[in-house]
Design goal:
Oligomer: single chain
Low-confidence stretches: none
Pfam family, one: UPF0227
Number of domains: 1
Strand order of the largest sheet: 2-1-3-4-7-8
Radius of gyration: 16 Å
Number of strands: 8
CATH class: Alpha Beta
Strand content: 15-25%
Mean pLDDT: 95
Shape: globular
CATH superfamily: Alpha/Beta hydrolase fold, catalytic domain
Structural class: alpha/beta
Distance between the termini: 13 Å
Number of helices: 8
CATH architecture: 3-Layer(aba) Sandwich
Protein name: Esterase YqiA
Amino acid sequence: MRHNVLYVHGFNSSPLSVKAEQTKAYLAKHLPNVGFYCPQLATTPIDAITQLEDIIYSEQDCTWHLIGSSLGGYFSNYLSEKFQLKAVLVNPAVKPYELLADYIGEQKNPYTEEVFFVRAEHMSQLKALEQAAPSVDCKQKNNYLVMVQTGDEVLDYQQAVDKYQHCRLIVQQGGDHSFVGYEKNLAAIVDFFQLT
């Protein structure tokens, strides 16, 4: 059975982000038979989710694994529940429709230099993707590994700890929203996905 990793980047990010590049390099070196996908996400939530679903649907004769960072963690939570996939959530957004309300208006992607607009209706699209907190049997199902750093300056890490309290949690003191030292956790991520 072929295995694929789908890396879902965060808001206003890109496949060229540090964590995405580190994941790609790690898999290429240690697990070259594992497929790696990290698309440049569409700028509206509904289009981004459709894009990600289409990728999963495109290869159904394999096992998909999700890694989602920040807003990508929120999207990965949705995809994990829809397709019953294992997901690693890195400093995941829990209520992005509240946070991104402050970003309504023109934005520019620092990686692609694409100019796009965040609109009020995008908050409704995000809200529609919200999933309930995993129940007490989450650890038994073992579908989530949630990694947060307490020094996250963008998101309140405690929101993720509360929502995913019944899942496998890694809470590291300090750090920041980028998740400092992420590459040191890739072996644990691969182990969680049972890729070795």
